[in-house]
Design goal:
Blueprint lengths: L4 H13 L1 E3 H8 L3 H13 L4 E3 L2 E3 L9 H6 L2 H12 L6 E5 L3 H9 L6 E5 L2 H7 L5 E5 L3 E2 L6 E2 L1 H7 L4 E6 L3 E2 L4 E4 L2 H12 L1 E7 L11 E5 L5 E4 L5 H9 L3 E4 L9
Parallel strand pairs: 4-5, 4-9, 5-6, 9-12, 12-14, 14-15
Antiparallel strand pairs: 1-3, 2-3, 7-8, 10-11, 11-13
Helix pairs in contact: 2-3, 5-6, 8-9
Length: 260
């Protein structure tokens, strides 16, 4: 498959950074945004990239991209989402935090909180929070995925089922237009389902790129969520599902008077 040097470099950047943005590419290559949009449209037509708002990402499929790459996608948006979600958690609460780059952003924002009990299947979250005396950190047992430090499998599911906590902070790899929450690993999905079932309040955290992606395994549905925190929700169908199911939708990319 023939690619121009600029197209090849755009694809390599997308693989390394997780996503590419029109304005950044225009500055990098010293061309107009219109030229970059045409480049991205050409690459998307060839199924080498997938269009998102303001740029493009590596196409999704049966497998997720590398964890470090995922962390670079919408990093600023995830930080804002993390701060907004952490603000929902009061001191002296108990909560689950599952694996994911956005849930990790929540854990970073929680470091300023008072006492909390955190139960997690995310080694990264446990390592970040364990040095702080105000936190009691409980980590699930099971198989550790080398790709991201997630603890999965039946042992992790059985461990989670021992608890009934105040809040669950969960992520998703993709959100379908019908409100389905999706992921790539059925073992992680089993853990996420146990987390949802054993929390009094469920907080979903996901940036807007998750509306552009697909994944094969169903975690659950938006109707099982109490609060959905995102940078923006461009899909009116998702907004309607939130309204019908009494899901509080918080959009960090909007001014407060524009937030549902």
């Amino acid at each position: 498959m023939f690619l121009t040097p600029r197209h090849s470099e755009i694809i390599e950047l997308a693989k390394v950074e997780g996503r590419v943005l029109v304005d950044d590419l225009a500055n990098r290559f010293e061309v107009t945004p219109q030229t970059i949009r045409k480049d991205l449209n050409d690459l998307c037509e060839r199924q080498l990239l997938t269009r998102i708002h303001g740029g493009a990402i590596v196409p999704s499929g049966m497998q997720n991209m590398e964890y470090e790459q995922r962390g670079k996608i919408a990093a600023e948006e995830k930080s804002a989402i993390g701060a907004a979600a952490a603000a929902l958690i009061p001191d002296n609460a108990s909560l689950f935090i599952n694996i994911g780059t956005t849930t990790e952003a929540v854990s970073r924002a929680l470091l300023r909180h008072g006492p909390l009990m955190i139960i997690t299947n995310n080694i990264n979250v446990a390592n970040r929070m364990r040095p702080f005396e105000q936190f009691e950190v409980v980590i699930a047992g099971g198989v550790v995925r080398p790709t991201d430090g997630g603890i999965v499998g039946e042992a992790a599911v059985d461990f989670i089922r021992q608890f009934k906590v105040d809040y669950a902070v969960i992520g998703a790899s993709a959100i379908d237009q019908d409100g389905a929450l999706l992921d790539y690993d059925f073992r992680e999905v089993k853990v996420a389902q146990a987390i949802i079932s054993n929390a009094r309040q469920v907080v979903l955290v996901a940036d807007a790129t998750k509306f552009e992606r697909m994944a094969p395994v169903r975690i659950g549905h938006l109707e099982q969520v109490d609060t959905f925190v995102t940078d923006r929700c461009p899909d009116e169908k998702i907004r309607e599902i939130c309204r019908q199911c009494n899901v509080e939708l918080i959009e960090t990319g909007l001014r407060s008077n524009e937030t549902d």
